[in-house]
Every structure is written in C-alpha cells, then in structure tokens.
Amino acid sequence: QVCIIFSDFGKMQNVCSLLIEKLGASVTVSPPHFYHTPEAIDALRRQVCVAAVGNTRRKAQEVCRLFGQSLGKPLLIKEEETKEWVGHTDSHLSNSPAPLTLQERIQNATAYASCRVFAVFEIKGKENRRNKFL
Q1: Residue range 101-126, pLDDT digits in tens
Q2: Which of 19, 64, 100, 122 is least surrounded by CB atoms within 10 angstroms?
C-alpha cells in the first residue's frame, strides 16, 4: 500500500490516471481523502480579512465621493468576527444513501471563511480649485 499526499488536485488526477494506465488491474486507486493543513486555513483567514478591509475601504470611498469628500488614511481597523466552515450548508448531500460523487466530496471538503471588520477612516474635504489660485 502506498499513500501519496498531493497539494494539487490536477497532479493527483494525472498520477492516478498514469498508474491505472500503466499498471492496469494490478493497481487499485482508492478515493482521495481531502483535508486542509493548519497553514492553509491560516492563509485563508488572512486573505479573507485583507479582502474585507479592502471592501470596507472601497465602500467608504464611494460614500465620500457621494458627499464631495475624499477618503484619508485609516485611523482604526478592527477585526470583529471571523467565521470558518467546511463543506456544504445544504443538508441534502449528507442525507443521501448513495455514495458521494467526487464533485460532492470536493464540495464537502471545501473550506470557507468570512470576516467582519470595523474601520474608521480620516475624511478630507476637497479644496475648491478657485482657492488654489488665490
């Protein structure tokens, strides 16, 4: 028995296909077992937090433009809540008596995260062009 750990799903499929093609019936390839390393989950958390801060800044810029202001530097950024979950939220997949397809297994093993941030930005007033020349 040989156990191989892949970090790339495409490479795993290619290696399994090659083994089956070259070795035929003498090899049995078991269904893959999916998992996430702590480092991968930590990287996901950071990506989600950075994306949340970016979204917050873009929304604040839009509001400032609406009022004729410009957005300044951030004064406070606080991560308020982070949620993580693995798999589908649909319960019909887990209640099915039939074995899961590969696609369903991938969906059940997919990691998700969300982050809510609170940010306070400096607001700068726009100068009138006439005042610059006076």
Answers
A1: 888 888 888 999 999 999 999 999 77
A2: 122
* pTM as predicted: 0.71
Instruction: Name the β-bridge partners of 119.
Output: 77
d(CA 78, CA 59): 16
CATH of 36-124, one of 1.20.120, 1.10.720, 3.30.110, 2.60.120: 3.30.110
Q: Which residues have CB under 8 Å from 41's CB, separation 6+?
A: 84, 111
82-105 pLDDT tens trace: 999 998 765 555 566 778 888 888
- Measured between alpha carbons, how far is 37 from 55 in angstroms, rounded to an integer? 27
